Amino acid sequence: MSEAFDYIIVGGGSAGCVLANRLSQDPATMVLLLEAGGNGRSLFVDMPTAFAIPMASKVFNWGYFSEPEPSLDGRPMDAARGRGLGGSSAINGMVYVRGHARDFDEWESLGAAGWNYQNCLPYFQRAESWMHGGDVYRGGDGPVGTSNGNNRKNPLYQAFIDAGEQAGYGVTEDYNGFRQEGFGPMHMTVKGGIRSSTRRSYLEPVRHRSNLRVITGAEVDRIELEQGVAKRVIYRKA
Questions:
Q1: Which of 237, 220, 221 shows the shortest CA–CA distance to 10?
Q2: 84 and 36 in contact (C-beta within 8 Å)?
Q3: In the prediction, which pLDDT does 82 show?
Q4: Is residue 85 domain-shared with residue 103, that is, in the same domain?
Q5: Which domain holds residue 89?
Q6: Cβ distance 194 to 146 under 8 Å?
Q7: C-alpha dihedral over 35, 18, 7, 4, to 10 degrees?
Q8: Which of 188, 212, 229 is a domain's end point?
């Protein structure tokens, strides 16, 4: 059976779910999202403290390995990649750390025009809903919920930070804000005690759109080109 779409997204992972959301904002645009894995829904995916379970599951992890590493006595390394809607954002450790501002500025100095930190900052803010609200560095109403875990209810949180300060290191209340160096509370892509994967943040809120179709269990066989332009995607149901 052949169907026509304006955009076909191959892979419903971290980027694919965002693209499905953004491209389908125009109701005149037909969008198809193909994902080889499942729907990504599971108590163990949503529960932050259970992240080791989907990480170890063939249902949610493709189970890739690196080539043998000479520096590891020839052993391969695990290269976990998410399988299912949300991709690796559904199985990762949820640690939310932006790149250092100087790294972005260095990119621009090396020729990546427009990629300085001040130009990228609005996009970080647009994506984020920080638990303490937006400010000049943080976003307050974006789709991805971010928090500092359980808001430091465990006394070991502060004890760890205090130990770093006593050892002579700097302290920061927000390493994604003005001061990026130092000991401070860990930030996570968690909202209301639930993992804020791209499936939950970007895809689920727009699944009702009539111009967006999502097919899971769809393994893409090939992309057919005509004069260098992709025209057809051939897939089979897993």
A1: 220
A2: no
A3: 96
A4: no
A5: 1-94+196-237
A6: no
A7: 50
A8: 188
